[in-house]
Every structure is written in structure tokens, then in C-alpha cells.
Amino acid sequence: MKRSLLLCMLLACPAPAAELVPGKSVFGEHQYIEYIPGDLPLVVCSPHGGRETPESIPDRTQGVVQPDGNTQELARTFAEVVHARTGHHMHLIISNLHRKELDPNREIVEAAQGSPIAEKAWNEYHDFVAQACAATVKQHGVAFFIDLHGQSHPDVRVELGYQHSARDLAADDEQLNGDAYLAKSSIQLIAAQSKEAYSQIVRGPASFGALLEKKGFFAAPSPRMPSPQEPFFMGGYTVRRYCLAKNNVAGLQIETYKPKLRDTQESRQKFAEALVDVLEEYLPARLAIQLDGTPVTSKTTR
Ligand SMILES: [Zn+2]
């Protein structure tokens, strides 16, 4: 036995972290949490599409326990399309646990409700997210973050959560441009780099919602629907925690609808292609970086 190994064993050194390879999954304990590392400036989470229900974790008794059906499949399809289009990988963090066992998009008390196994999975999930964001910022200077969900609201639209409630979005453009709204935004980093008014970034003709609508998917906020009615998802814990200008991370929660978007593999493929189209336009315009990680020269930035 080598002396260094013996010394390490005696001192109970932690095992060295496994080398991360873009596109190759690594897992937490029991494979409840999966991280597919990437090399693109894009970090995506799939918190509510898991199906595993181990007996070792008691069912959560408080909060929402219904899963976002087919969203894990949607996230994996999205990753495949990103790879097919760029030759590179986005970072993808997945909870394989059913939402009744763990809700990674809540703070730990509500997320795990006292189960030590669920708490461990929650910590693994967020360690992977933090690791992915940090690696992306180190590699590219910025990270664009998407928390990918599914909803079944009666009004069919993809809900874009920038941490603005329906009530916030009922404000007129002048109000929305005020500091109070920007202070809670998940795209502060984008706003700081833009000459455009904040309200325009959120719901103007070149907003994320506008680009998604051009691809044939109803979205809000957007020029067509600048002030969506309740119920509307504004973005939750994960976006609030990671989309911080001081960390060079911007992003949003995307709440997809089901009919003709995530109901079949054909639908999911179509939406994933559209989402890549949107990012190919949005990232250079908003963060001066191509989806493939190439910086945009200042001449072409807005
Ligand atoms: Zn969800």
C-alpha cells in the first residue's frame, strides 16, 4: 500500500471528488438525485417530475404533493436537443423522487418534512445546483438558469416566473420600471446590462415570452398577455436562491402547460426545439453570450 493512501486512510480523508464529464450522470445516494454536468452557459433543474416512492421516506403531509407530469421527460428531451444543436451539454439537475417524498423547490423544512433521507437528497440536489452554477460562471462568466415545471392552469400559457406575481404584473410599465420591482427580479443581471426599460425586458417585443409566442407557444408575461390573471406561478425557492446578479446568474421558472407541449414525446420534442430557438436569440441579446458559450462581440450586443 502506498504511504500516501495509508496516511489518507488513517486520517480519514474524504474520497476525492469524481471527475465530472459533460453529459455523464453522477448521482447522490440511492440515485435519488441526478446531476448531468455540462459545458454550456445553461443550468436547468427538474424538481417535480420524479416517480420514485421509497418506503424509507414518509409521505409529505403539508404543501403540494402532486407531481408535474412528464416534466422529467421534457427536461431530458430538452438536454438532448441542446446537445444535438450545439454539440455540447447543458447542466441538468433532476430529482428522481416523487414530489410526495421531496420537494426540492421549497426550503428544507417544507421540502423534506423531517425525513433525514429526504433532507440528504435535498442537500445533494442543492449542492449540485450550486456546483453547476459556480462551474458555469467560472467557465463562461455568466450562467442562465431555468427551473422547469409543469402546471394545469385553466388559462393555457407557459408561465414565466421572474419572481413577479400576477399582482406585480398588473402594474403599468412605469411602475414596473421602479426599483421595488427590480429588487426582487430573477433577471437583475440582465437588467443591469441592458439599455432597455425593465418592463420591456419582462414583456416587450424581444422578451422571453415574446420569443416563445413567435415559436407558437402561448406565454405570459408577453406583449399579448402583459398582465396574466391568477392563478399564475411567479417562480419559487430555487430561482430566488440562485438567480442573483451578484453571482452572475440570471434566469426564471418556466411553468409549461400540458396539451400539445408535454403530453407526448412528439410535443415535448417540438417544445424543446422551440426553447432552444428562443435561447439562441435571447442569450446573445441579453447576456452577450451564444448558447454554445461563444462570447458576443460588443458590436452586436444590444
Ligand atoms: Zn413544479
List the helices and strands and how they pair.
Layout: H1 3-10, E1 26-27, E2 33-36, E3 42-46, H2 71-86, E4 91-95, H3 108-112, H4 116-140, E5 143-150, E6 158-161, H5 166-169, H6 173-176, H7 179-184, H8 188-193, H9 198-203, H10 208-214, E7 219-220, H11 237-242, E8 249-256, H12 265-287
Parallel strand pairs: 3-4, 3-5, 5-8, 6-7
Antiparallel strand pairs: 1-2, 2-4, 6-8
Helix pairs in contact: 2-12
Bound molecules: zinc ion.
Please give a structural write-up.
By secondary structure, this protein is an alpha/beta fold. The protein has one domain (22-300): Aminopeptidase, CATH 3.40.630.40. It has twelve helices and eight strands. It has an eight-stranded mixed beta sheet, with helices on both faces. Strand 3 (42-46), helix 2 and strand 4 (91-95) form a beta-alpha-beta unit. Helix 2 crosses helix 12 (265-287). The longest helix has 25 residues, at 116-140. It is globular, with a radius of gyration of 20 Å. It starts with a helix and ends in a 15-residue tail after the last helix. The model is unreliable at 4-10 (pLDDT under 50). The chain binds zinc ion. Zinc ion is lined by residues 48, 68, 149.
How does CATH name the architecture?
A: 3-Layer(aba) Sandwich
Number of domains: 1
Query: What structural class should be given to the helix and strand makeup?
Result: alpha/beta
Q: Helix proportion of residues, in percent?
A: 25-40%
Regarding CATH, which class? Answer: Alpha Beta
